[in-house]
Amino acid sequence: MHYDPIKRSLGKVFNQTPALRVLFYKLLDLLLLRAWYIRRKLRSIKKDKPAELNILDAGSGFGQYDYYMSSLGKKWSITGVDVKEEQIADCNQFFNKINRGNRVRFEYADLTKFVRPDSYDIILSVDVMEHILEDELVFANFFQSMKKDGHLIISTPSDQGGSDTHHHHEEDGVHGFIDEHVRDGYNAEDIKAKLEKAGFKNIETSYTYGKAGNLSWRLSMKFPIQALNATKLFFIVLPFYYLLTYPFAYLLNWLDISRKHTKGTGLMVVAQK
Question: Regarding the domain delimited by 4-212+261-272, which CATH topology (the fold level of the hierarchy) does it fall under?
Answer without folding.
Answer: Rossmann fold (3.40.50)
